């Protein structure tokens, strides 16, 4: 049972490189959709509470096309509870799925786990998105890790730009921070295999830089337990940080375990 309200200034990421999925907290559907490199064409809905959908007779499941996805982005997906879907290119491709493949997709939504990796040649899909209270607990499968790093960089910057910024010695016009190139996040890949928290609320801002701390906190499935661990960080030195240089307009990453 959830003990706290979703903290949108905290991101938790645990990467399972072998099975191509990421467990996350603090990354919501709208951020995912805004951050992936290419928009998805259609989404086959496995578990959802949407009312405006299309229906596919072969799978006996509902789906949304690009027009409906545009409307979906404006919905309160967090309030849906379970929200699970898999992308696909064309409805005709759904009609080619075998009974075994349909069963695997239903299993995926029911248990938020795979019988085999959920990337189907017939669907040409790149993702399987499995959320319980979207943003609170998300398990997302990525066919290509570049898509994940692009999405994460976009999400972090989106949160930075949405924060209220204090003026320093004189009033300055707030400028949006540019996207984090996916390559900048690669040094954190090994940390992500262990489970990291990226804290926007603990970011240090001044006239010259924005420094976002990163801590390795371990592998969590229970996001209440993860958040409790995060709250106990206290003054512990960060295991890494993301730094934006205001003058150069560039991002840098520093990833090294704490020695204290």
Task: Describe the structure concisely for a colleague.
This is Oxalate:formate antiporter. 26% of the residues lie in helices and 27% in strands.
Any overview of this molecule?
A hairpin with a 4-residue loop joins strand 12 (240-245) and strand 13 (250-255). The chain is an alpha+beta fold and 260 residues long. 26% of the residues lie in helices and 27% in strands. The protein has helices at residues 29-35, 66-72, 91-94, 99-111, 145-162, 182-185, 189-194, 223-231, and strands at residues 10-16, 21-25, 42-47, 54-56, 61-65, 82-88, 127-132, 137-142, 196-199, 204-205, 209-216, 240-245, 250-255. It has eight helices and 13 strands. Strands 1, 2, 3, 4, 5, 6, 7, 8, 9, 10, 11, 12 and 13 form a 13-stranded antiparallel sheet that branches. The protein has two domains: 28-134, no CATH class; 169-255, no CATH class. Helix 1 packs across helix 5.
